[in-house]
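Repro case for the chain-ordering regression, as requested:
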Amino acid sequence: MFPPVSTVPTGPGAAAVPLELHEDRCFDPDPAIRRVARALYEETRPLPLICPHGHVEASLLAENRPFPEPAALIITPDHYIFRLLYSQGISLEALGIPTRSGAVGKRDPRRIWRLFAAHYFKFRGTPTGAWLDYELYHVFGVRVQLNADTAEHVYEHISERLASPEYLPRALFERFRIEVLTTTDAAADGLEHHRALRASGWQGTVLPCFRPDALFRIARPEWLRELARLEAVCGSPIRDYGAFGAALVARREYFRGLGATSTDHGVEEPRTERLPDEEADALLQRAIRGEASAADQQRFEAHMLMEMARLSVADGLVMQLHAGALRDHNEPIRERYGPDKGADIPVATEYTRNLRPLLNAYGNDPRFRLVLFTLDEATYARELAPLAGHYPALRLGPAWWFNDSIEGMRRFRQRTTETASIYNTAGQPVGDHPPRQVVAHHVIDLEDARPMARALAYELAKETYRLPAGDRPLQSGGGT
Amino acid sequence: MFPPVSTVPTGPGAAAVPLELHEDRCFDPDPAIRRVARALYEETRPLPLICPHGHVEASLLAENRPFPEPAALIITPDHYIFRLLYSQGISLEALGIPTRSGAVGKRDPRRIWRLFAAHYFKFRGTPTGAWLDYELYHVFGVRVQLNADTAEHVYEHISERLASPEYLPRALFERFRIEVLTTTDAAADGLEHHRALRASGWQGTVLPCFRPDALFRIARPEWLRELARLEAVCGSPIRDYGAFGAALVARREYFRGLGATSTDHGVEEPRTERLPDEEADALLQRAIRGEASAADQQRFEAHMLMEMARLSVADGLVMQLHAGALRDHNEPIRERYGPDKGADIPVATEYTRNLRPLLNAYGNDPRFRLVLFTLDEATYARELAPLAGHYPALRLGPAWWFNDSIEGMRRFRQRTTETASIYNTAGQPVGDHPPRQVVAHHVIDLEDARPMARALAYELAKETYRLPAGDRPLQSGGGT
Amino acid sequence: MFPPVSTVPTGPGAAAVPLELHEDRCFDPDPAIRRVARALYEETRPLPLICPHGHVEASLLAENRPFPEPAALIITPDHYIFRLLYSQGISLEALGIPTRSGAVGKRDPRRIWRLFAAHYFKFRGTPTGAWLDYELYHVFGVRVQLNADTAEHVYEHISERLASPEYLPRALFERFRIEVLTTTDAAADGLEHHRALRASGWQGTVLPCFRPDALFRIARPEWLRELARLEAVCGSPIRDYGAFGAALVARREYFRGLGATSTDHGVEEPRTERLPDEEADALLQRAIRGEASAADQQRFEAHMLMEMARLSVADGLVMQLHAGALRDHNEPIRERYGPDKGADIPVATEYTRNLRPLLNAYGNDPRFRLVLFTLDEATYARELAPLAGHYPALRLGPAWWFNDSIEGMRRFRQRTTETASIYNTAGQPVGDHPPRQVVAHHVIDLEDARPMARALAYELAKETYRLPAGDRPLQSGGGT
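-- result from build under test --
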């Protein structure tokens, strides 16, 4: 993507091993499959990137300031990286992760980087390792393998790059040919950075996504603060369920006004159940008094998923559901460092019975769209593909989180394509396997696979998320 | 199978793309595996088809009338097809599925066919798509790809074929070289069509299978009607559990008299538990009064599975158990169109603890045989293969329903062969993978794989289902 | 491993088929993958075997007597073999398995062997079949395929070999180049054979492993006998929880004194929960009175896992947890023949919530190490890899029991490597797949795969189990 840069070090790392990415990287070793894969890849490669779900901050692009130094850019904020280092006995302090109390002093970023580099070989065979090699090579032009000896050199090299205008956030956005990037934003977020982006005249499309989870977790100690934020942004008190619902409607409208096409919801268990309004109100009252229990929250969340679906029918926002992560499994780590420190662990998840009330109520409605994500692969073939292969409102989101890897994506497609067809999935922005495999087995031919590959890489994401100018119908390819 | 027929359209579909099925279709792209696969396939290909479980109506062969026009033959009765079209936003009315009230008028079959053809590309990568291409090419001699442009032509072509004597049900049965075909029949069914078939002098072997599920679902509103049917066919009132049991014994005997070798049972959860007779009688009394609850039904079903096993020990009928489908998940669809409209969704299923009472009571008895089917692949390696690799009575049925596909069959064999051995499975009438793979890995050699392939394609199905003339012992192949 | 021996029979088995093991046995048929696999295999092949978990009796090596005749050596004690024969309708009596009452007379070993040989073809495609072929060929030098015709000849051949000094247990131990072999021993075991081995002057390293399960199953009828054994070996009465705990500490110390580096724990469900000491004592008192219920046992086991972890922090013994087998599923078989007759069946197992108390209490402690084993593959990617990829104390044990097979090992690596990295696993002593695959896909290169293969075959097992002289840090390979 970026022009290669000669960076063979001449100092202490002179004996360093060159970093080379094989031209057949990630391609199947079988020549028949590889030939098909290459053909499909060449055709989909020039397509722009559609990124309908992510965690990039809008402020990054609104402010367009240079990225921080390499350790703060690559290591400290990435739980995929620090969780593995932590599992291998390296303390989070040593990696520069601040404690909640702020008691631990700041770390020298170069020391953090060297520690990372010395253990970098432990990422071999992981998607993080594969992506980092790609990033070092293609984005930063590094040409030596990262290890203890080359750490300093690579650090310097990346730092230099980050200082140049070509590495400013907007410049990278454009070079990566991102057509749409969607952020994730709390319901009470004022979306100032999104407003600033629109006002700036910059042409990149960055859309907000409405994520009200925190408002539905009524048993959490921080819930009252979340409610206060909602009251503040709405400018009026919220003391009953009617006002709560009206505020959510208003916020959705506000998000839509800034281009949002979707909402996002994260739950441990995807229960759905409609409660009478009086009961929802009683739960809310208990929460306002600080008395809501875990069971109360579970019922409230189940009800609010029904409500969010109902509102989606009305306002057209695509509803995303991410289920199955037990958050902050490691209590001592959460107490010391706060939430989101690489200790979210999946649990077995049930969809068939849990989603029945919601799908029975809204799943047949052409105005509704629900995109499902799971961390429990056992549900791919057993529950998700059959559900998506029946309900018109349902699409399967791509392999998520721990499963967003070469093997994980392959398993996702092998277990969902036959029952759901690729056309009931939201695509997968990165390269995909099933067309290659079926073509190589001659079940479909290459001509037919071409529009499938294009759909997976581009069209399905746009169509699923109702993104601007995504109204071109899917092409059937050869023969039509 | 059928001689190819030149059918290149000269009308509007003139620009149509030829339909060709590659000679290596479904074969592994790896030459080493493909070579083995070809050798095994050539040997098993001439074997007749053993079809011990299916849903073909005996009336079809008894009456031997021409099949209806293409839409009524291929689309309207096939939930694999209309579920996927429905999931893509096409209404069931538009596909000619009648509502329960009959309020919706009849559809022009050609319009249905055109709609199907226009969306046919969405079946790419699904087993339905693979089978349809096969059927169009080999059974009907179609030589153009089906799409919106060729819809009319293909419709005409199939219609013509269906009008010829070669496409009558019995003619196809013979051409397909079906050695045995088993139907599925309600316990109270008089089996008139089976009697007619026997009386007709036609040589094809068509056997009934005893499926009494409807009589065990005592909480369903239609249960009393089912009981009345049983009373009618038995010619005496059934007012207590003793009479109920006697009626079932009599019906099994009647089915056996018409050649049945098996029974079939479908449950959501495979619970098994013997109740005292008085308790079974109390449940039946409640059902007769129309007062049985869902919990009552669950206990009654668990008990009746034990009873069915007990009777199988006595009369030798092979017991099949299909577990794990939540039927008619989509309530609005069920209300409008009735049951079985493509909305059956699997649930996680437990076998180890659930089947323990039944297997402890009958699983060591050489007279008993139980064939297990699952929709929950997570149980293949974890529960089913270990159970089948121990209990003499147990055989694993082939990959079922959503899993009856190329990837699904492969997963079934990869997860069951090592622990259960292929000899504790009922085979898989269509081509099978594990011998090819292990041969290509040189764990067994081609000579040893030959009898395995033959067992999988033919002998195991006959032996498992105790089919006529199936008493030849399995061959061990090379060296004996 | 052993020099091939010409053993073509000239008698009745003259027409026998030669037994040959292909030089590419178990290697991938794809030439690109095979080339990598061969390179890695050649490098790891000379490494000694590390066997940190097993069920070889120390007495075998302490006494170093000749092995018994082939049937008693190979068939009667191996539930992998007799379970499959039993599943195919062969009675356990016919295989020489004694009943508990001893009522059934002794069987002629040659008759048992012939029965086994006649059904040997049913093991094709199973790991047992693959291993047996290997053992016959490489260990015993057999050069004809085993079947009904060659049974007698092979029996004679093996018998002769077993009579020679080269086939004594210690001689085989040395030829197999076993560096460490760990046995499994009850907590109350006096370890006399381990003492004898140390006293013998023989150089082989054989270590005990502390397995106190029987003492925690307080609802079992045999529990009081186990407690009495513990009292006897400790030389003092154990009448309260304090004394019970002290006895366990003393036994661990005794095991450590004889070289133990690990403990082992088997549970059906891996629940962990710390109870107040008074409650643990109350449970123990109920057990002493013979009144403990199944629920009592479950709570006691959950508590004792916490205690075992606490003691491991203190004494450094590596804790192993094997979860998920429902033991002796076949009650009639257990009643007639006793436990462990091939009827242990896995159940779905939950780790994320069950292990949370234990991991929260000890999982962040660098002194603690827990090695997890599962029979439920659905947990590999969903629960185990995420847990091992976070908690420093956790390592994943290799694919276990039914999954300890070619396909099973492949699935283990495909589902754990990406999230946990190979460095959070305990390796797998036999050949391993992931490096080959990723190398063939060019995600990592061969130079980098070399230290990974070595780690998997040797170093990780030594490091995980804190085995003697295992303190060499893992190598990162190329470039450092």
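Ordering looks correct now. Residues 1-14 of chain B have pLDDT under 50 and may be disordered.
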